[in-house]
Amino acid sequence: MSTEKIGFRMFLHPGQAEEYKRRHDAIWPELSALLKTSGVSDYSIYLDEEHHVLFATLRRTATHGMDALPAHPVMQRWWAYMGDIMRANPDGSPVVEPLPCMFHMD
Known about the structure:
Elements: E1 3-11, H1 17-25, H2 29-37, E2 40-48, E3 53-61, H3 73-82, E4 97-99
Antiparallel strand pairs: 1-3, 1-4, 2-3
């Protein structure tokens, strides 16, 4: 099955790096399962500590279901859980900025 790799950034509130890591170290099994069944794999999030910017990459299948994730109750609960430590939109979703791939090497 073919996949595409995407990258994006999100924004952590200053002083929240340890809490962000703690929450992700204990990620809910139902959230992991939801992401996997939506076609998401190889998901990593990195932190630029100086600027409080989170950089994420993931792979998704050509038939991914990521567009349906915002309406899912588990995703809504996760956003509410994370909203106090990162920049969020009025609907509770994290502020996400897609990043274009400038270079890739297999």
